[in-house]
Amino acid sequence: VQLQASGGGLVQAGGSLRLSCAASERTFSSYAMGWFRRAPGREREFVSSITSGGNIKYYADFVEGRFTISRDNAKNSVYLQMNSLKPEDTAVYYCAARWGTGLPGRSAPFDYWGRGTLVTVSS
Length: 123
Fold this sequence. Notes:
By secondary structure, the protein is mainly beta. The chain has no helices and eleven strands. Strands 2, 4, 5, 6, 9, 10 and 11 form a seven-stranded mixed β-sheet that branches. A hairpin with a 6-residue loop joins strand 5 (about 45-50) and strand 6. The radius of gyration is 13 Å and the shape is globular.
């Protein structure tokens, strides 16, 4: 499975961005998906995950209702709508895929990773 994240950019604090992740796999609907991020000088951290059918979602505590994960299986894509962005959200954001119908938690291993997209939030 090849994953390509896009949609990053420079935004002022309080602004919004929508990240997209396109998958090459025709069986995309068989994969749970996740978003992770890595800030400068920090380890990669979990942001959000969504089940293969899109009916269950999970967020890291720091999201605090600001981000929304969604997917469109007809388009082999997963999205991360990010609102009320903060400077501490600055990071490279990655999407990942995990085979199966369950909901991956923050520590679950993912099978495939895409290249990241850089999000920079200015104060």
